[in-house]
What we know:
Blueprint: H1 10-31, E1 36-38, E2 47-49, E3 59-60, E4 67-68, H2 71-103, H3 105-122, E5 125-131, H4 134-143, E6 150-155, H5 166-178, E7 184-196, E8 205-217, H6 220-223, E9 231-236, H7 245-263, H8 269-272, H9 274-284, E10 294-296, E11 308-312, H10 317-324, E12 329-334
Parallel strand pairs: 5-7, 9-11, 9-12
Antiparallel strand pairs: 1-2, 3-4, 5-6, 6-10, 7-8, 10-11
Amino acid sequence: MLTASANTSPKKQEYFRRRSEGSQTNSRRVSFESPLLQCRYSRCGKTIPKSSPEASSWKNCHNCSYIYCSRTCRRAHWEKHRKTCLFSRIGTLCRQVIASIKEQKETLYHLSLIARRGYLSHGLGAVKCFFPGPDKADKFLTGGLNDLGELTYVRWPDLLPSEMGPQLYSELVQMCKTYNPDTKMVLYVSVCVVSETPATGAVKWERQLVSRCAKMRLSKDFFFSVPENPETLILTCNSIEEGNEEAKKLKELSIDNVLKELRARGVSLKRQHPIIFKQLCAYANGTCEKFTPITVYPKDATTGKSFMCIIMLEADPESLRQVESAGVKVRTVNVLCAAAE
């Protein structure tokens, strides 16, 4: 504690007195833990003791430690809070996933294979790792490869700015156009967050994707081993003329057979790859006129091995020929047949 001697001038005595009080105040701030709860919505600011029975009914933010006295306050504050909450916390989680992938030899090797095969089949693009919730991404950080998110390879022209915002989209496209596929890959990690939206009446929820991307070196082990060519399944069909009822039936048939072919291997697109499933449904019902080719890497439930599945609905013969001659073992299925082969 600061003190002043008897010979100190009055001004200096006053200075030491204030410094002493300030030091005591600061020490109290450091060690003092408030026994009160305060609503984080500034227009409310309600305060109650933590020991109060009412405290059990207070509502936490779904993604962080912010607490509110009611759902009403939580909804009212969401528009202001959402940027710092979602994009900070979940963005950090995405970066942790990327850092963990770099450190996990087995996971990095697995993604390196996907990146290389994707490039050979489709050209420059990114490996997308999708987690349906923050809890799934957290689980990967401790569980490793077995808990890795859903993987797809996306050509850079097929990236969607609506999934990530214009700034990240521009950064990701630039990475995809400039990386050397012989030594590097582009990784795109995306985490889905379900949050309550500000609304009156019934509770409403929204799904939002938070994403981060990175350019990284392919696994060193990749260059010192001869990777086994995976089984590659191409699900395709001939071009379908638009504008009549028959076309709609053919699209629905093609989608049904895509799902059947994968279900026979124990793969459920609806459950395991919900975003791709929605894209297929949009194609079937006419919301989307053309289905962009996409590659997924599911695991065959019978063999326990991952395989490469390329969905190329209405693919032109030249594109199909390029994929089939890319140096991988290919099985092509025409999904317009009444029953998939």
